[in-house]
Amino acid sequence: MPGTMSVDGHQTSVFTFQSAVHCCHVLRSLDEQRKEDVLCDVTIVVENRSFRAHCSVLASCCDYFHSRFLNNASQNLVLTLPHQVTVEGFEPLLDFTYTAKLLFTEDNVVAVRRCAQFLGFHNLDQACFQFLSPKLSSHDAAVQLDRKDGSSEVPPGENATSGCGSRQLENWDTGSAAPQPTPPPVLEKNLSLDFSPPCPASPPFPAAPGQEQLCLQSCGPELQPSSTATGSGGLCPFLSMPSPGEEPANLNISEGVALEMVDECQIRDKVEVCPLSDQDPLPGDLSLADQATECSTLCPLRTSATPETPDKGALIFESSENTPSTLTPMETSRGRSSVEREVAEHLAKGFWPDLCTSLSEPQDPEDPPSSESVGTVDFHWLKHLDLSAATSECPFLRDLGSDETPAVEDCSSAAQSEKSPCPSPINSADYSNSDTEEDASATQERAREVALPFPVKQISTMSRSAFQQILRQQQLTQEQLEFVHDVRRRSKNRVAAQRCRKRKLDCIHKLECDIKKLRGQKDKLHQEQLQLKVSLDATLQSLFSLCQSVCSEGSPPAEQLLAQYLSPDRPSSVLLTPMSSPSLTSQDTLTSKQQVVGEAVPPCLKPDLVGPETPSSTA
DNA sequence: CCTAGCTGTCATTAT
DNA sequence: CGATAATGACAGCTA
């Protein structure tokens, strides 16, 4: 407001509130409306199948709909799409329109591409399909993610950023040729994990020069030399990861913990269980596993099945405005897909290739890598995740703790944030493997008493195999053994209790979500009932007036006429034609208008079939 | 002082 | 059979 600016140099403060979640909420709300057919104003017919939607939403995402709707401004438009558009291709695109997520499978990628091309969908780039088609068509051959050279799949010179190891899909997200405030979304190493913040509406950090993309890009090795994240405190904003050059001593995860994490990861990997699964967290990795549990949307290897779990090898393209669009590999079974393995391995090697080797530890002799584990994921890089850092340092974790739940959340993921103003230690950043301070000091005291030859912390953090090994090696006394087992048991149980409680809260929240959903459905049904009642009244009114007009022409009374019409002996072809029926007596004659109309109403319009409430009761 | 919520611990059961 | 996870119950602490 120029007029409000004072002339003495003092400027009127102008504040702009920009909600980080508003757009997500709007989109989610629209999606819910679509699913419940609320406020939908168009029916799209594809291959004889109907899809309800909102004109404005479709028009905003798609050239085809935009032009069609502009030319057809009628209410409740029914738009039949040409044969080029198939259900297989259109349905994922429609979902994408409302969710910003596009589900690809091996089977549908071609159809989706064709439909997107035909309809002129925004925010979808050809390169996306050019990348995906070979991936999905040769899925079993393991997706060949380009490593250092970035030379595979995408034809040379086609959106490939040479020497970067990743392909930048120009104009991927915005569909606009105008310069973007944020760098163009990058399909990091082809398959970015679903690490986008819960709501991608705003960048996780203020965009400083040279530091605009403080997400996967900044963490990746490609940007490492120039990344300012390294110099700014040494902490990568993404999950508070230490930067590559950081000394391991600075890690909040103790070396013992880190080593055991690796040990566990390798063990888990052998049995094909995601170490970051919310269903199977690392026993020896408390903070990490449970942070991952809390951040289920952040877990790249989550195993929790979703209702819309796609086929094996399916990928989700997620579009967001200010963060890189992502492709998230999905899985259906506990076993990881080759795509997923590739992704994890890629990230592990891609983030800190030097540290992966420098910090690698000798394998636990009891847990040698199986032959199957060759080529599987190495989670050494997880050692550098400082998940015990304050969540406020990490925009992603921080957001999880807020009440503003992400647009793509499921109920369970939001449980903690909504139910617990004070997150439990299992989710909070200050959680550690140690007991409370008093307990910890008492335990330390006891450890000194029994002259424990290794740190107490290791007792609860080391893997089972390492634990057994150290017990064998150390030749502990009976007292020491009892102490060690007691500490370990209590530690494990403590974490188990925390998990148990969190699950309980999640369950409660999920049930609350279900209640909310069912209430919405009830409201919707109630509205439908009211609408039907209105239409029923109108129908009855017109019917009765029709009868009266017929009666006024010298025909039998309207009631008798209706009774004749409703008589079971009536020939099916007779429609309100005056006739005499031997079965109709004066007693049969309906004397009440309400009775007549009640009988005349088709069964589907009878109030008692429409809903539990009769018109009289609702009136 | 009471209460609710959180947390650790123990006992038990299942895997 | 031992280790572990899950969970109910209980107690202590704290706001």
From TrEMBL:
Give the encoding gene's name: LOC114802275
Q: Where is the BTB domain?
A: 40-106
Q: Looking at the keywords, is Glycoprotein present? A: no
The family database entries (SUPFAM superfamilies) matched by this protein are listed as: A DNA-binding domain in eukaryotic transcription factors, POZ domain
Q: Where is the composition biased (Low complexity)?
A: 574-586
Q: Which GO terms describe its molecular function?
A: DNA-binding transcription factor activity, RNA polymerase II-specific; RNA polymerase II cis-regulatory region sequence-specific DNA binding
List the residue ranges of the region (Disordered).
144-193, 355-375, 405-446, 574-594
Keywords carried by this UniProt record: DNA-binding, Transcription, Transcription regulation
Q: What is this protein called?
A: Uncharacterized protein
Q: Which InterPro entries match?
A: BTB/POZ_dom (IPR000210), bZIP (IPR004827), bZIP_Maf (IPR004826), SKP1/BTB/POZ_sf (IPR011333), TF_DNA-bd_sf (IPR008917), ZnFinger_BTB_dom_contain (IPR050457)
The UniProt regions of compositional bias labelled Polar residues, in chain numbering, are 159-179, 413-434
- PANTHER family the UniProt entry points to: AGAP004733-PA (PTHR46105), TRANSCRIPTION REGULATOR PROTEIN BACH1 (PTHR46105:SF23)
Provide the BZIP domain boundaries: 488-546
Organism's domain of life? Eukaryota
Q: Which organism is it from?
A: Denticeps clupeoides
